[in-house]
Amino acid sequence: MDSMGGGNTQLLVSGSYNNYLHPEWSPDGTKIAFTRENSIYVMNADGSNEVALAGVAGNPAYYPQWSPDGNWIVFDGIGITDVIRIDGSDRMTVLESAAVTDWIP
Q1: Which helix (H) or strand (E) holds 84?
Q2: 25-61 tens-digit pLDDT
Q3: Three-class secondary structure assignment of 28-75
Q4: How far apart are CA 97 and CA 99, in angstroms?
Q5: Of 78, 74, 20, which is closest to residue 47 (Cα–Cα)?
Q6: Greater confidence, 4 or 90?
Q7: Assigned CATH topology for domain 17-103
Q8: Which residues of 19-45 are buried (b: 16+ CB within 10 A; e: fewer)?
Q9: Do the beta carbons of residue 41 and residue 11 sit within 8 Å?
Q10: 3-state secondary structure of 13
Q11: What are the sequence ranges of the domains in the chain?
């Protein structure tokens, strides 16, 4: 039994700590978004149907967060914050920050 009394706990992924970071449950509890190797992935709560959504070498993606309706994921990159639909479509940058060198005196 898990410590919350909700049933059995199952390990859904294996590998090193660096391969599966920042897991976030969807609002309805059916999916998990996470970061692996600088990309955002979504999978079913049982660990099946893992799909890469965003992030590639040179444009990494981290820290996924679900929208309240569960249709979008917001995530951070280098100097940007983007949103993307959970099917991988309609990616948009919602915030761009200045390069570090732009504000260092």
Answers
A1: strand 80-85
A2: 999 999 999 988 888 899 999 999 999 887 765 678 8
A3: CCCEEEEEECCEEEEEECCCCCCEEEECECCECCEEEEECCCCCEEEE
A4: 6
A5: 20
A6: 90
A7: Thrombin, subunit H (2.40.10)
A8: ebeeebebeeeebbbbbbebbbbbbee
A9: no
A10: coil
A11: 17-103
CA 69 to chain CA mean position, Å: 16
User: 35 with 48: CB under 8 angstroms?
Assistant: no
Token code pair at residue 68: 């309240």
What does the radius of gyration of the chain's CA atoms come to, in whole angstroms?
A: 15
Token pair for 28: 């309805």
Residue 28 has a pLDDT of 96
Mean of the per-residue pLDDT values for the chain? Answer: 77
9/4 Cα distance (integer angstroms):
10
Tokens coding 82: 């983007």
CA–CA separation, 4 vs 13, rounded Å?
20
Backbone angles phi, psi at 77, to 5 degrees: -125, -160
